[in-house]
């Protein structure tokens, strides 16, 4: 604390340890994007880990492993961005760790087609989420950070490939496809909303 003479005998105090200025709106948006995308890719990694725990030796095992490896690359990239931009990860990573694994394993226990239905539901939400983010980044004029824009575009395209793969491998033939995918989509949307801020 430093004492300043404000004239006429009055004294004002100026804190030398004052908090950093509030982040700009653009900065808060970028923090939220990196935080939620890191959480999403972390969750996707855990979903595929759960599926692989059950279906590793099934005919769809190699395909699931291929998608899982892509999700691991996505997760690693967002871990890098979290560090680079000093973004606080979501406090709910332990929850998403368990929830993601259980979602992957439980749908895999219902069979390969149910696992593919899970993939389709999750990727449908994520592709829409990434498209929304791309629109937001264009609106706030964040072309100066091409790395984040390019990362989201690339990962969006990977997720779209996963969606198509799930459809090609019988997702819609899963028992209770509509009910199953609707529950999974709602869960994903809820996780996205929460992870933006917590």
TrEMBL record:
It is an enzyme of class 1 (oxidoreductase). Binds 2 iron ions per subunit. Fe cation 1 binds at residues 41, 71, 74, 159. It is a peripheral membrane protein. Pathway: Cofactor biosynthesis; ubiquinone biosynthesis. One of its GO terms (biological process) is regulation of reactive oxygen species metabolic process. Its EC number is 1.14.99.60. Its cofactor is Fe cation. It is found in: Mitochondrion inner membrane. InterPro entries: Ferritin-like (IPR012347), Ferritin-like_SF (IPR009078), Ubq_synth_Coq7 (IPR011566). GO terms for cellular component: extrinsic component of mitochondrial inner membrane; nucleus. Fe cation 2 binds at residues 71, 123, 159, 162. Keywords: Iron, Membrane, Metal-binding, Mitochondrion, Mitochondrion inner membrane, Monooxygenase, Oxidoreductase, Ubiquinone, Ubiquinone biosynthesis. It comes from the Eukaryota. Catalyzes the hydroxylation of 2-polyprenyl-3-methyl-6-methoxy-1,4-benzoquinol (DMQH2) during ubiquinone biosynthesis. Has also a structural role in the COQ enzyme complex, stabilizing other COQ polypeptides. Involved in lifespan determination in a ubiquinone-independent manner. Belongs to the COQ7 family. Component of a multi-subunit COQ enzyme complex. HAMAP family: COQ7. This is 5-demethoxyubiquinone hydroxylase, mitochondrial. It comes from Ceratosolen solmsi marchali. The gene is LOC105362904.
């Amino acid at each position: 604390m430093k004492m300043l003479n404000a004239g006429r005998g009055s004294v004002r105090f100026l804190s030398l340890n004052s908090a950093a200025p509030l982040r700009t709106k653009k900065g808060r948006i970028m923090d939220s994007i990196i935080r939620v995308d890191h959480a999403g890719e972390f969750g996707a990694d855990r979903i595929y880990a759960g599926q692989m725990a059950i279906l590793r030796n099934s005919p769809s095992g190699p395909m699931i492993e291929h998608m899982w490896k892509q999700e691991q690359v996505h997760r690693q990239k967002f871990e890098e961005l979290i560090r680079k931009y000093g973004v606080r990860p979501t406090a709910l990573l332990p929850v998403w760790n368990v929830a993601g694994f259980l979602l992957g394993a439980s749908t895999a226990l219902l069979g390969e087609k149910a696992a593919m239905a899970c993939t389709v539901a999750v990727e449908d939400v994520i592709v829409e989420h990434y498209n929304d983010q791309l629109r937001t980044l264009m609106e706030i004029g964040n072309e100066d950070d091409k790395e984040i824009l390019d990362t989201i575009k690339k990962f969006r395209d990977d997720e779209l490939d996963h969606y198509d793969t799930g459809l090609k491998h019988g997702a819609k033939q899963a028992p209770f496809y509509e009910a199953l995918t609707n529950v999974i989509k709602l869960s994903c949307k809820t996780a996205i909303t929460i992870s933006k801020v917590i």
